Amino acid sequence: MAETLELVWLQSGGCGGCTMSLLGADVADLVGQWRGVGITIGWHPALSEASGAEAIDRLDDYASGRREPGILCVEGAMLRGPNGTGRYHAMAGTGRPMTEWVAAIAGRARYTLAIGSCAAWGGVACAGANLTDACGLQYEGALRGGLLGADYRSAGGLPVVNVAGCPTHPGWVVDTLMAIGLGGYSPADLDSLQRPRLYADQLVHHGCARNEYYEFKASAAKPSDLGCLMENLGCKGTQAHADCNLRSWNGEGSCTDGGYACINCVEPGFEDPGHPFAQTPKIAGIPIGLPSDMPKAWFVALAALSKSATPRRVRENSRADHLVVTPSARRSPPK
Amino acid sequence: MTRLVVGPFNRVEGDLEVTLYVAGGVVRSARVNSPLFRGFERILEGRDPLDALVFVPRICGICSVSQSSAAAQALASAAGVTPPPNGRIAANLILAAENLADHLTHFYLFVMPDFARDAYRDRRWHGHTHARFRAVEGEATRELLPARAAFLELMGFLAGRWPHTGSVQPGGTAQPVQAAQRLRMIARLTAFRNFLESTLFGDSLEAIDALDGAAALDAWRGRGDRGDFRRFLAIAEDLDLARLGRASDCFVSAGNYPQASGRHFAAGVYDGALHRFDPSAITEDLTSAWMSSPEAVEHPARGTTEPDADKPGAYTWCKAPRWNGRVVEAGAIARQVVDGHPLIRDLVAAQGGNVASRVVARLLEIARVVPAMERWARELVPGEPYCHSAPMPADAEAVGMVESARGTLGHWLTVRGGRIERYQIVAPTTWNFSPRDRHGTPGALEQALVGTPVAPGERVPVAVQHVVRSFDPCMVCTVH
């Protein structure tokens, strides 16, 4: 067992949704589970008792080194505006920009985690003209840098761990903290965008319940249709690095189960896709966003072939909100 | 007069700072500052109208579905569509699941831990309150979180996930609940009822709903010793929480959960008499907000969002919504008093909106809505449609109004040439935590804090914490 690590959680230019998501974790005893791997909650804005001046004292202890911030989790974008002052978020009770608090505590933290795509890349706060001059901890969109700079390493020798997602899946946070608590967490556990490989090595497509429709390019035309969401409704599940359809959300769900496109919310820049989210951009009828690792010519050939071979059952169900044709029952046992 | 700046307030959603002017051991006046600005209304400008369904839930992680619902209603109004019965019912279930999960989170994680503080160590109830409710480590947290997570599995059946679903659409819902899923949803609702009846109420939901006044509530409390609701009522009596946190006693509700006709909870404005709720009577006053605008007062249908961090005299990013020029309070207490529930009408008649009655109204609402959800889940008809197509017109003006857990939420939408030209949002905590308007009239929390006791040397006045949290503020929605 590694030593005890105190968890410090700060929120800035975000919605608090990653915390809300985390509290829905499918574990019997969240706090007890962390304690089991030596992680205690030093400060969390939704959970801790200390308020006002007591809270500022505690955060000041972390910022000045009187108390070691074992794991700094930051939720929400870093708001540098207006004009570089950080006044779009001055931490209550201090008048001091939250960006300064984050930088000070990150400078002493053993591990620094960006919880959610806002803290990782800037996320929705950056959308459009980026009015608040928002960025992530170590990225600004897909560019390394961000608030802490490309060269930042926490005291544990790691860059910022980007637990990206909008929101993050509770399991991604729980598992990452477990891995850190158990010791030996290293850069090899992160992908090329510094996301934990424990979820980012998968694609949202993996385990998608609409896979048979995908295989035959039997596509949904409107919300609530059962068909594949990729061809018409903007789904990026074949490109998105996450295990949403293997883990499931809230018991048995996922975005694609919910009947709406995967918008690739784990990726930098997802907030400005350059097209309406619920429409698939196409050139000559071919979606421009092709599945990961798939050459375009192959995709086009396979799509044409599979469309011509679509069973009636799959085609008709794809445009309905319930099964209108059920799989035929065999008279003899399946071979 | 001593000036005391209090913040950050944890166990509220988002960041909050309150400046208190204290004399003679009580707050004489207060200024509420929402210190975070993000600019969603500006982010939405120029986009495809349906893109609002991606952005608005991300305004807030705790009221995410409420934001989606308001947008979907505005878009449905723009497109001139009405969801089919399944879609309407499923959307109500999604919104109700979020609202009740929020009420429960608020009670167990945000409100009760304050009574476990050392400040109350001399009270006879402190020992078991500390064991049960203290922040992070209390036994109630270990009971609440799994029950809440199991309840939110409804979202997996209805909305793909929570927070930030895309299932709530103008034409209905995008996740058609199938026959087996409907059965499992009904089972989840039964499990949730069991948790509430055994742990929160120590009685049936129907018995709570049947409480018809303060006398009935007192009598019910005396008839047993089970349930966390009774524990709260005992603390509330001992600390006289009903004397804390009175605001304008004018309550607003847009009504909630659309039915085949009308809404499950009625719309209105209540100040002892019931008035018709009309969204056109809403204005936003920008006098004290760090926002520049040609006019000090705007109707949201013509509203603007132009940040100006150096504006003289301003002290918050929050605008000041008013109803016919009046300061109103939103939330469960407003919904229930407008809907005419006899318990809340009686509590409000006696001592207005206060720390105790706000908490009671929230828990009452849980008891009233779960049976409705059970009925709605049974009314779903798998095989019948969940969603109509909703083609967007090139030009439209529309409004969508819903009740989130925290109260009245409105979205005002203007579409020109197929793009969003203007998008304005008035959120529940914008009402409750609004700053002074051009007449110098303080907002609801600013009024509620006046008279709150502050003990000598108290750096984090505990009574102030109770008053603030009794509104269940959501600061990320407030300024969006």
Topology readout:
The complex is a heterodimer of chains A (335) and B (480).
Chain A: E1 5-11, H1 17-23, H2 30-36, E2 39-43, H3 52-64, E3 71-75, E4 78-79, E5 90-91, E6 96-97, H4 98-106, E7 111-115, H5 117-121, E8 134-135, E9 139-140, E10 143-144, E11 161-163, H6 170-182, H7 197-200, H8 211-215, H9 244-247, E12 282-283, E13 286-287, H10 296-308, H11 312-318
Chain B: E1 2-6, E2 17-23, E3 26-33, H1 40-44, H2 52-55, H3 64-79, H4 85-111, H5 126-133, H6 139-151, H7 153-158, E4 168-169, E5 172-173, H8 179-201, H9 205-209, H10 214-222, H11 228-239, E6 251-253, E7 256-258, E8 263-265, E9 268-270, E10 274-275, E11 282-285, E12 297-298, E13 320-323, H12 332-339, H13 342-351, H14 355-379, E14 396-404, E15 407-416, E16 419-426, H15 428-432, H16 444-449, H17 462-470, H18 475-479
Antiparallel strand pairs in B: 1-2, 2-3, 4-5, 6-9, 7-8, 9-10, 11-12, 11-13, 14-15, 15-16
Helix pairs in contact in B: 3-4, 4-6, 4-14, 6-8, 8-14, 12-13, 14-17
Structure description:
- The complex is a heterodimer of chains A (335) and B (480).
- Chain A contains eleven helices and 13 strands.
- The model of chain A has no long low-confidence stretch (mean pLDDT 95).
- Chain A folds into two domains: 5-200, 3-Layer(aba) Sandwich (Rossmann fold), CATH 3.40.50.700; 202-324, Cytochrome-c3 Hydrogenase, Chain A, domain 2.
- Chain A is of the alpha/beta class and 335 residues long.
- Chain B has a single domain (2-479), classed as Cytochrome-c3 Hydrogenase, chain B, CATH 1.10.645.10.
- In chain B, 41% of the residues lie in helices and 16% in strands.
- In chain B, the strands form six sheets. Chain B has a three-stranded antiparallel β-sheet with strand order 1-2-3.
- In chain B, helix 6 packs antiparallel against helix 8, helix 12 (332-339) crosses helix 13 and helix 14 (355-379) packs parallel to helix 17.
- Chain B starts with a strand and ends with a helix.
- The model of chain B has no long low-confidence stretch (mean pLDDT 96).
